[in-house]
Amino acid sequence: MTSDGPRPQPTGLAEGSGLPVGDLQDTSTVTVDLAAPASALAIGAHPDDIEFGAGVTLAKWAAAGCRVHHLVLTDGSKGSWDPEADLAELVAARQAECRAAAGCIDGSPGTSPSADRVQFLGRVDGELENDHATRRELARVIRTVRPEVLLGHDPWRRYRLHPDHRAAGFLTLDALVAARDPHFFSDLGLDPHRPQALLLWEPDLPNHVEAADGYAGAKVDALLCHHSQFETTMGLAAAAPPARAGSLAGADGGGGDEPAADPGRTAFADRINWQLAQHGRLAGLDAGEAFHLMVDL
């Protein structure tokens, strides 16, 4: 499949199939491991969603030479239980946390990727909408970054409570369609781009697993960069000092010369490893991240 231009008509289809709509999905097989792409774009609703949804996968691909891009749609300004919180400071802190987490994903903790690698759309947290202006911005980023693989939220996950996650998923899908077809947003002056694959994390119907392959530690390290979310999301002491978690993520976490682990962080890493084990079981693996994979884009 090429990344640009019209999609060729499938061949070898059963009689009556191959129409634009109506084909049933075959969900009997779970595939494992895409070839590491040259570039990937992950689109998250909030500053920590990308690491929760695809931290292992992106770290593994980055180690194989993939240029990983992060796009965060909201400002994260609802991410505190403190009614007196300074929201401007919270937004600035969460952006800094995103950059630090992206450094962990890249395999370079303590560094910050370039501005084009971690972008912020700045929509108000909790108020994200699948509107024309936002779709246009996402299409612009997709056409500029030109990722081989696009990753985002599964908007069809049943009983999903947070409206931003649903909106982010539908925005990603709608922007993909707009980015690939030349008559959407032609005023942008950017050539259309069709990714080769779409991975939706937290899938309602998983059909693909990316093996963890020793990158659980990178996922935990990246998540623990989000210090502002220790209390609200991670169940950790709000005042816990920043620290790398390398030795907390199990045998594959690395960092054996680190200080003794904080019990709360150890418990958090255990929860992440438990989830990775459950995902991996879908494909007979010890650990992995599950997605819904779409390649007919």
Could you explain how this protein is built, in words?
This protein has a domain of about 190 residues: Rossmann fold. The chain is built from six helices and eight strands. The chain has an eight-stranded mixed sheet, with helices on both faces. Strand 3, helix 2 and strand 4 form a beta-alpha-beta unit. It is globular.
Topology:
Elements: E1 31-32, E2 39-44, H1 49-63, E3 67-74, H2 87-105, E4 118-123, H3 132-145, E5 149-153, H4 163-180, E6 197-201, E7 208-211, H5 216-223, H6 263-281, E8 288-294
Using the 3D structure, state the CATH architecture of the domain at 35-211 and 284-294.
3-Layer(aba) Sandwich
| CATH homologous group name of the domain at 35-211 and 284-294 | LmbE-like
Shape: globular
The main β sheet shows up as: 8 strands, mixed
Query: Which percent band covers the strand fraction?
Result: 5-15%
How many angstroms separate the termini?
9 Å
Number of E strands = 8
- CA gyration radius, whole angstroms: 19 Å
- Provide the CATH top-level class of the domain at 35-211 and 284-294: Alpha Beta
Look at the structure and give the mean pLDDT: 87
Helix share, percent: 25-40%
Strand pairing plus helix content: what structural class?
alpha/beta
Reading the helices and strands in chain order gives: EEHEHEHEHEEHHE
In which order are the strands of the major sheet placed? Answer: 1-7-8-6-5-2-3-4
CATH topology of the domain at 35-211 and 284-294: Rossmann fold
